[in-house]
Amino acid sequence: MDKQWIVSSSPHIRTKEDTSYIMKQVILALMPATLAGLYYFRVQGLITILACVIGAVCSEWVYCKITKKKSTINDFSAVVTGLLLAFNVPAGLPIWMCVVGAIFSIIIVKMVFGGIGFNFLNPALAGRAFLLASFPVAMTTWLKPGANADATTVATPLSYMKLMGAEGMGSSADAVSKLHDAGISISSMFMGNIGGTVGETCSLLLIIGGVYLIYKGIISYVMPVTYICLVFVLTFIFGGFNAEFAVYQALAGGLLLGGFFMLTDYTTSPMTKKGQVIYAAIAAVIATCIRLFGGYPEGVSYSILFANCLVPLIDKYVHNRVFGEVRK
Q: pLDDT tens-digit profile of 152-165?
């Protein structure tokens, strides 16, 4: 019997993994940190998460209805955006601000440019930057973990370090001493019992979620390892070779959250490993400069957003060699 050959266009190797599967894996990886946020910030944390997630999903659904496009909420990307936005804002942020941030993230940053796969900025981080520029006081008011809604606010570890170490008022040793005086230890930063946004406080659970995504093959280790390790090295060097100061910097703020869950966004990151290293290194340098020499204690969100803008340029000049290519 004659054999029948089937000729088809690429891709020839297919997988059952789709956008919905990937987003579900990201949500699963974020669950430990979500539970920690609920444990430390209680009802205020729950309200913030629900407001951001529901606001993001409803924004995408309404946009698709108005523009008469097929609804894309079933791919769970809006849920991920809403959850990451909630992770990047303080617990107790007014509900309407959470909703406004979600609308900006989904409609302005994502859907207007064509939806998932076409946005050039990370939607959640762009939403955070928009909220911080619009409502700076509300976005820098941190609830004390485990407290009720009427409890006093606290400063974040980065705020203490900025006060003592980054503005010429003292050395990195002074910054570490200030953290010790405030009762902020490295172990407390690992466990999350510190002031900060809903999802950035518990370093241990963020690392576990990031390692899970790497294990499942959802993200590559290249970008988070380059980003986090380079920030550690740079803060160690510019912090007077103070290892404890560098560890505090690595665990504080949104470095782990941004490195594992937002720097690695498929749409806004380079396609090649070499490009990913360059991209992560640029973001790390910017984050370190803002933290140590800028007027704002945190630089993760702006560093990633700036690096996002450079991705088309990186992809243009950094690419893999084509098999069979002959050098001129």
A: 577 788 887 776 65
User: Cβ(119)–Cβ(267) under 8 Å?
Assistant: yes
68: left (phi over 0), alpha (psi -120 to 50) or beta: left
Closest to 258 (Cα-Cα) out of 236, 290, 216, 294: 290
| Cβ atoms of 37 and 198 closer than 8 Å | yes
259 in Cβ contact with 251 (< 8 Å): no
Query: How many CB atoms sit inside 10 A of residue 301's CB?
Result: 25
Q: Are 159 and 227 in contact (CB under 8 A)?
A: no
Q: What is the pLDDT of residues 291-325, one digit of tens each?
A: 988 888 888 999 999 999 999 999 999 876 666 66
Question: What is the per-residue DSSP string for 155-195?
Answer: --HHHHHHHHHSSSSS-HHHHHHHHHHTT--HHHHHHT-SS
Q: Which residues pair with 153 in a beta bridge?
A: 143
DSSP string, 223-277: HHHHHHHHHHHHHHHHTTS-HHHHHHHHHSTTHHHHHHHTTT-STTS-SSHHHHH
Instruction: Tell me the pTM.
Output: 0.89
Task: List the one residue out of 227, 193, 200, 204 whose CA is nearest residue 88.
Answer: 200
Phi, psi of 240 (to 5 degrees): 75, 30
Q: Are 79 and 103 in contact (CB under 8 A)?
A: no
